[in-house]
Amino acid sequence: MRENRYFSHTYEESRAGFREKLGEVRKYWPDAGLETYHIGSREDDNTTDIIAADALEESKDLIIITTGEHGVEGFAGSAFLQLFIEEYLPRINHKTTGIRLVHAVNPWGMRNFRRVTESNIDLNRNYIEDWGEFTGSVEQKYTREKELFVPAEPLENIKSCKEELHARLNEAFSTEELAEFKDTPSGQHEYKTGVFYGGKDWDEPARELKTRYFNWVRDYDHPMHLDIHSGGGPKDELTIIFNEADRRSEARLQEDLSYSNVMKSSTEDIYGDSNLYLQKALQEEFPDKKTMVCLFEFGTIGESVDDLIFCTRTMINENGLYFQGARKEEVREEVNRDFARLFNPSKEEWRKQVINKGREGLEAVLRSENIRI
Prior knowledge:
Elements: H1 11-20, H2 22-25, E1 33-38, E2 47-53, E3 61-67, H3 74-88, E4 97-103, H4 107-111, H5 140-144, H6 146-149, H7 158-172, H8 175-183, H9 204-217, E5 222-231, E6 238-242, H10 250-257, E7 262-264, H11 274-285, E8 292-299, H12 305-324, H13 329-343, H14 348-368
Parallel strand pairs: 3-4, 3-5, 5-8, 6-7
Antiparallel strand pairs: 1-2, 2-4, 6-8
């Protein structure tokens, strides 16, 4: 199927394909460049790669696309970058528009097919404004069933493990709580080997990105940031999510985009959300700029109670597998298959909708922001 060509099997393959796109970008911006920086040791060769090009005449609009904040989700993000380069770069005004295309914010996670960083940190819970004043948090839902979320021993028989975990999650949490675990987990900042860990200080990938971010937007009137994710939201749909720093109501956003799956998230009980942090920081430092930050979420799993339990159960088992291992290879293989199904499905139907829905979402956002396409 044609859409399969957008998707890579490994981090290395994806990175190589992205780097090759620099030549295509230079058709429109001859001075476009590739910035590469390492996360972790240089020997491990885990890099974040950025194709950067500035407006040829007047710095009005800047399009930022970030991918792979949750490492394994970077495969959908890489496909989205390729789609954008091939189909949308020729259609925007290069004289007044610049780009920053970011491949693999969390390269270790993408290379190792994990969602978190090498420090087990969920980067989308790591953007704390002042770590010196932050005392840490453990969400109540997490605390009351802590033994479910912090691995203590190797995984045994996968069938009985799944059945027992399914029953415990079904008994311990309401449908609403399970839905939050699937789409907007609150996170915790205490248990380093636990699920949804947000860290105790800036993790290297977050620190490196935010250091560059504000320099990118400094000279532009209108910075737009699209952050690409997979896993949350309705199955086989694209949900475009804005944060509370956007001053428009959800109804107004839906009207502006003329797109059905648009929502505005509430993060009052969530610490360290990256998009909220970045947009608020932009508004504070550059109050005269028109800023827009949104998250593209390509859904993989349904919304039934069993589906919601599958999501949390899979997150718990994958984390347990990483820290405690499994007694049998077939257990490892099944946990990894479930995890891929949750964040990086190989089904052609899902990949097709990433490309098709990606087009629809891109056009909705660019149109609403008055970018010529």
